[in-house]
From TrEMBL:
The keyword Mitochondrion does not apply. Residues 1-24 are annotated as: Disordered. This is Alcohol dehydrogenase catalytic domain-containing protein. It comes from the Archaea. It comes from Natronoglomus mannanivorans. Keywords: Metal-binding, Oxidoreductase, Zinc. The keyword Metal-binding applies. Residues 8-337 form the Enoyl reductase (ER) domain. GO terms for biological process: protein tetramerization; small molecule metabolic process.
Amino acid sequence: MRAIVTDGDGSIWEESHDRPDPEPGEVLVKIRAVGICGSDIGLIEGEGPPWKRYPLVPGHEVCAEVVELGEDVDSLSVGDRVVLHGFCYCGTCTPCREGRYYQCEDLREIGFTVAGGYREYAAFPAYTLNPIPDGLSDLEACQIDSAACTLHAMKRLETSVTDTAAVLGPGALGLFGVQLLRARGVRDVVLTGTREARLEAGRDLGATKTISVREEDPVAAIDDYTDGDGVDVCVEAAGAGDVVNTCLKIAAKGGQIALTGVFDGPREIDPNDVVAKELSVVGGVTAAHAVDDVIELFERGDLTINGIVTHEFDLVDYQEAIQCVRERRDGVVKAVLRP
């Protein structure tokens, strides 16, 4: 079978691999769609979590079809379409026992330390796969992980219908953030970013105001928009630049901030912004405990991939797809590979 591999030095290539056989507790799946995440581009460049392992087949935004069951698997059936939630964990350490399996002391992560979805077939532990309803398309399904990453962080925030919220970063996570805030009843959502096409997509998805940070200072613009009060809720989804400080500056007194972007290094902040305004700042970098909720939100029509999944490529065209995402060509937000 075809598999796409990187060693983290900036290159990615195709190899021919044997189709895997499922071990006990595993399921053999045929990959139907896999999103190209920004973290995949980082992995190709050698970035990413300290537990990454090379050489590696990337890809964690996976929709697949079950083709064979390993021994002792009774939670799935051949023919099921499934979505991947790619954490492999021990189940016995303290974080696992407390439900924080994504912080397992022996964590392995599909697409980061375990071969992911940039291939035609894969054998994954059955517990990493969630069946999806017939009404969800493959493209919607492969974006469940993105939306659930944002929702996992937002579950740590309390929102009200009277809140004014800001989303910083109009990539996939941010555009899902706009929709998730609207689904929670927040009607006043500001979206900031650098690219007009993505800001326009945000307006179509429910943002009530958009700010191009290339054209105006987002802190001053939000201060003006809120009559100096700031925003009650801030969802950071950029993982770049000085966006953390922007969050601290635009937050209202007693405001809440969720950081979901993965940064390329440390950032300097003024802790007095947190102290003086008594801000609550939380982080989130996983789809844990949010996958089922996102499936339901897609089914209800509260989430859409319109304006988010903008490009599809056959797996054989992976080089073109990677370059499209890397260079942000042709208005790409999310590109998907179809093996």
